[in-house]
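does this look right to u?? zinc ion version
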Amino acid sequence: MSNVGAAGWDPRRIRVFDTTLRDGEQAPGAGLTAEEKLEVARQLVRLNVDVIEAGFPAASPGDWDAVHRIAMETRGVAVAALARCRDGDPQRAVEAIRVAERPHLHVFIATSDIHLKHKLRATREEALAAAVQWVRYGRKALGPDAEIEFSAEDASRTDPEYLLRVYEAVVDAGASTVNIPDTVGYAIPSEFGRLVGAVVERVGSEAVVSVHCHNDLGLATANTLAAVQAGARQVEVTINGLGERAGNASLEEVVMSLRTRPTQFPDLASRVSTEQITAASRLVSYLTGFVVQPNKAVVGGNAFAHESGIHQDGVIKNPLTYEIMTPQSVGLSGSTLSIGKLSGRRGLQGKLRQLGHELEGEALDTAYREVIALADAKKEVTDADLLAIVEQLASEAAPVTSDTVVLQGWSVTSSHGGRSQGSVSLTVAGESVSAEGAGNGPVDALFGAVDAAVGPVLGWHPVLAEYEIRAVTAGEDAQGQVIVRCRRSSEGPDGPVQTGHGLSTNIIEASLEGYLSALNKLRDAVVREVRA
Ligand code: KIV
Ligand code: ZN
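got this back:
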């Protein structure tokens, strides 16, 4: 019952395969730009995951490009790309990841009768033949040292005897990892553990057995842990449990379970730097616009908060009374006052390093300028402020081109009971444009003015789908972090959504920044569509 030495893998290590940038990004409305994906990939490297699944290159030229850039730029980690077992997909994936230090091709095909009959309209034998064909292709294309992973989509609803036959056949064809997805989150831990045990028994001495659990019944983490106890040695997870529908197994829950309960997982550990978990969670939440629920395990705002007097009293006497892991172990320093006007670049760099962000060169200079400007506007610059600045810079990482819509100025008047009136001046496609708008409040009026300014030039304007404002810290001089999600007016209500971000001590300015950042991403997407 152990895949000892399979594909050179140390059987005492749990390989953490992060699929935030592939399955996570498939969550409706979680789309990221290539620059944002790179930012997340850099954080995943700091987190020390083993594999980054960077995307699905055949899905779009943009996805191919993002996977390729991550493969070129990240080191010390394997880069995986997903492909269906059909002509064209695996070739695109191989082209995108060939340059990676450790390429990891991930091919999949559905094996359950439900999927075969209604989705693929294929027989079991046809699916098996396609699986073997594309695993063999991957092994030949990438060579003996590459990782070739095969996933049997909807494995947990597949006839077990047929499933085992498929896994045996793909291992014979060269697969070094076989993945067991609980695609629709249907499995229950005890039964899933038995299924994983049977796969480990059959092919575990030749391949790493992996699991990929969805959370439709809230069991993704429990199923993943049951699988580890049954011999799985790769876990496919996402930051914050982001993913299709109810999401995927969450990295932080699985990794902290392994770390907190070593007697339940004897001699098994991941190499994840858990102190980077909070920074990763915040970054993914910010860039995708997906808020982390306050009571979310490990990374929720309340995960280490103690409200009742009895609990507070116990924690003060000894944190072990109510805390099974320390806030520091997941990167919550607990300190607030950090950096002021007189701190130098080096001090800022060191502080940011403690918070999980490695900045240098121009990125450090920009962050430094922002921090100094903030220190002029605000009494105290806290850790939360610094994180907000770094996140905002990550969301602005896309290069400014001559087509970028840039804010030149704005003004607004608003009074009790009346409609607000606003005006903006922008540069749109290299031209200066001004327009006015009226609305239900100052933000609405300014968004209307932006629509009036860009509509005639672009042929569409943004339509607001969601607007959220968060105060970064307490206090009347707090920065406002704004997340704006918009579609193009030329698309229906199902058109793709882009997320924009703004950050300022002036919430109207932050809102405008957020609206324009979403607008620019929508515009970039149009340019990419035209080029494709
Ligand atoms: O959920 C699933 O089945 C998947 C596979 C492609 C691994 O995401
Ligand atoms: Zn999935």
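The chain has 17 helices and 16 strands. idk if thats expected tbh
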